[in-house]
TrEMBL record:
It catalyses: adenosine(1518)/adenosine(1519) in 16S rRNA + 4 S-adenosyl-L-methionine = N(6)-dimethyladenosine(1518)/N(6)-dimethyladenosine(1519) in 16S rRNA + 4 S-adenosyl-L-homocysteine + 4 H(+). Residues 2-173 form the Ribosomal RNA adenine methylase transferase N-terminal domain. Its main location: cytoplasm. SUPFAM superfamilies: S-adenosyl-L-methionine-dependent methyltransferases (SSF53335). Pfam families: RrnaAD (PF00398). GO terms for molecular function: 16S rRNA (adenine(1518)-N(6)/adenine(1519)-N(6))-dimethyltransferase activity. NCBIfam families: ksgA. It comes from Microlunatus capsulatus. HAMAP family: 16SrRNA_methyltr_A. Keywords: Cytoplasm, Methyltransferase, RNA-binding, rRNA processing, S-adenosyl-L-methionine, Transferase. The lineage of its organism: Bacteria, Bacillati, Actinomycetota, Actinomycetes, Propionibacteriales. This is Ribosomal RNA small subunit methyltransferase A.
Length: 254
């Protein structure tokens, strides 16, 4: 846990958002380094026990912790604006939770999350990779993501059947585009729904035909015979722009 805190770069001025604190091992480490920690925990029993754990083990820092009992996928307000996210994300919902946090709380500019190793690799994958897909592109919309370490199953209790990966996140500006994020993401979803199809076929459902999709793609300076796995996030943004100009934006709302 200290290794994770150190790698996150959390400092004395940071307000950390932690998701799924569980028994509080990482929470204690974060409280040693940060100004404050806001912990979002869906389990009422664990959420209720966490303040007592901190009060017992770090009484001088108990006031720096705020526990929010809520589903991280649904939380839309926090008692403090976080500057950094550090979390061992629940593996079954790690990508939706991470994308929700990125979209909902723009105040945090960097983060370090632990996810299943396979998911970590997908989040950081680039165009042309076999594992490049929807999580990769949507992450790239918000931030640069880098895998900075692995964590063996033996450090967990109970011991899982998978390895874990540490992903460092650094916010950056979204691509310059007249399309909305929802429009761009809808194109991304369509492109990878059947990833082995050429884009002119994969996007035909959005515009009515393969020929119409080809026209949109050519206008966006994208090869209609390319596959989604070869495109960068800016390419998807240009496609969404062309759909908008063609009056098809209403058909691609996410």
């Amino acid at each position: 846990m200290r290794r994770i805190v150190a790698a996150s770069g959390v400092g004395a001025a940071d307000v950390v958002l932690e998701i799924g604190p569980g028994l509080g091992s990482l929470t204690l480490g974060l409280l040693e380094a940060a100004e404050a920690v806001v912990a979002v925990e869906i389990d009422e029993l664990l959420a209720g026990a966490l303040p007592g754990t901190v009060a017992e083990r770090m009484p001088g820092r108990a006031d720096a912790l705020t526990v929010v009992t809520a589903d991280a996928l649904r939380v839309t307000t926090l008692p403090q604006d976080p500057t950094v996210v550090v979390a061992n994300l629940p593996y079954n919902v790690s990508v939706p939770v991470l994308l929700h946090l990125l979209a909902t709380f723009p105040s945090w500019r960097r983060g370090l999350v632990m996810v299943q190793l396979e998911v970590a690799d997908r989040l950081v994958a680039g165009p042309g990779s076999k594992i490049y897909g929807v999580p990769s592109v949507k992450m790239a919309w918000y931030a640069a993501a880098t895998r900075v370490g692995t964590v063996p199953p033996s450090v967990f209790w109970p011991v899982p059947n998978v390895e874990s990966g540490l992903v460092q996140i650094v916010r950056r500006e979204a691509p310059v585009t007249t399309a909305t994020r929802e429009q761009v993401f809808a194109v991304v979803d369509a492109a990878f729904a059947q990833r082995r199809k050429m884009l002119r076929s994969a996007l035909s459902g959005l515009v009515g035909s393969s020929a119409a999709a080809s026209e949109v793609l050519v206008a966006a300076d994208v090869d209609p015979q390319a596959r989604g796995e070869m495109l960068e996030v800016a390419d998807f943004a240009r496609i969404a722009e062309q759909l908008d100009r063609a009056g098809l934006a209403g058909d691609v709302q996410a």
